[in-house]
Amino acid sequence: MKPPLFEYEAPRTVDEALDLLADAQEGATILAGGQSLLPLLNMRFAGPDLVIDINRVQGLGDITITETTVSTGAIVRLATLENDPAIRSALPVLGTAASYVAHPQIRARTTIGGTLSHADPSAEMPTVAVALGATINLRSQSGSRAVAAEDFFESVFATSKSPDELIVSIDFPIRQGMTFVYDEISRRQGDFPFAGLCLGITLDSGLVTDVRAAGAGVADVPQRLHRLEGALRGNTISETIEDAVEAAGDEVDPPTDIHGTAAFRRSLLRTLVRRALTKLDEEQK
Ligand SMILES: Cc1cc2nc3c(=O)[nH]c(=O)nc-3n(C[C@H](O)[C@H](O)[C@H](O)COP(=O)(O)OP(=O)(O)OC[C@H]3O[C@@H](n4cnc5c(N)ncnc54)[C@H](O)[C@@H]3O)c2cc1C
Predict the structure, then answer these.
(1) In testing the pocket of ligand 1, which one of 75, 103, 115, 156 has its CB within 8 Å of the most ligand atoms?
(2) Which residue among 82, 93, 172, 256 sits deepest, i.e. has the most Cβ atoms within 10 Å of its Cβ?
(3) pLDDT digits over 33-62, tens only?
């Protein structure tokens, strides 16, 4: 199918993009990788008056790595997160999770800002952003704000971003000493997962001193798994695997849809938790 008619602008600076967004008064949409937006336009689920292509905006492709943070501009591609040696070395879970998204051709276009804005609750990168405690940096004509990933996602395909706001960058903290795993279960390689898990653990003398976890596909947002974290904190992994598995399953209320029932997704999350903890336990021995 063909998209509806729309105006097209390709600004070169963030300020130009923000002016266009403000002038359009909710009639504009941002084009980043286009991998979600173009199907929506072609199927006429979206009908903006103006499409603002941000692919040529200066600075949005920048990457800065310090001892504490990997900061990426909004249009950094998932293929870059997957393949850039400096990112892989500083925060390997970003590349691991990115490698599960779709196929190489799609990852070569998909942007980190696009997948966070699209806010599919089964998507890999929003889940990693919540588990890591990432900060999403937004700008509009009226100013800037930084939103914790956990507060950014509000519901299925819905975020706290206003129509006149642009995601300009994302700060992913490097949690020194914390080992993260990302794993998921999908029907075929490259499909959205039925369920996914990002889990990070810090160990000191065999005890879990810090833990962060989030699940994909198990709620209407990428869900932080606080009960799972509580079950592990202060204990050895091997003593608490089964408690953690139970806690994770109990705290989610997954959707039932054409892809699977709530019980199916809950059981897959439990499998992922057991798998991840077994791996982390073996690695520390
Ligand atoms: C065949 C196929 C398989 C896929 N499989 C997966 C998968 O397994 N896992 C997965 O997570 N995704 C998957 N996707 C979705 C893909 O990753 C999308 O590209 C992604 O959801 C959106 O990123 P994008 O850069 O393409 O954004 P676009 O499609 O350009 O934009 C998506 C939305 O975000 C808004 N937006 C984009 N950037 C910004 C910004 N900087 N500030 C404000 N708003 C912005 C746009 O206006 C639009 O509403 C798949 C897509 C296809 C076509």
Answers:
(1) 115
(2) 172
(3) 999 999 999 999 998 999 999 999 999 999
